[in-house]
Fold this protein.
Amino acid sequence: MAASGIASTGRTLTAAFFAGSAALLLGERVLGDSETPRFVASGAGALCLLLSSLGRALIAARGPAPHRRSARTLAFAHLGGLLAAALYALSTNGGLALLGQDVPLSESVQRLRVVLQCLFPIVWLVSALPLLLIQRSAPPLAVDRPPEDL
């Protein structure tokens, strides 16, 4: 794969992360009343997050040795985005039911929901900011040259 191919793949994965996050937010917060558009936007966003994280993990595992550390850091940032999405999912009525909290009006369930709703944007920001900053500052990977030319 050409160096520009890897560099553009990294930019594409970062763009997919942010597009997936935006689609998930759009689906859950803006289109929350419309069932079909909500599920389409939320599903597309979750799929973008999952696929970009998988792609980032593959680059971290198979990338050139000198760049594996930064690739692993980017992969962990993507995993943090997935964790944030999971925390958000757990804060919904369906997620609380999965946790065994079926009574949405009890005080303990409301406290749990507030904690989860406060945690997910914090986890997302802690993941997204390093992802954006590392991606913007890292030089393109030069993997198309043989190892002796590096």
In short: The two ends are 15 Å apart (CA to CA).
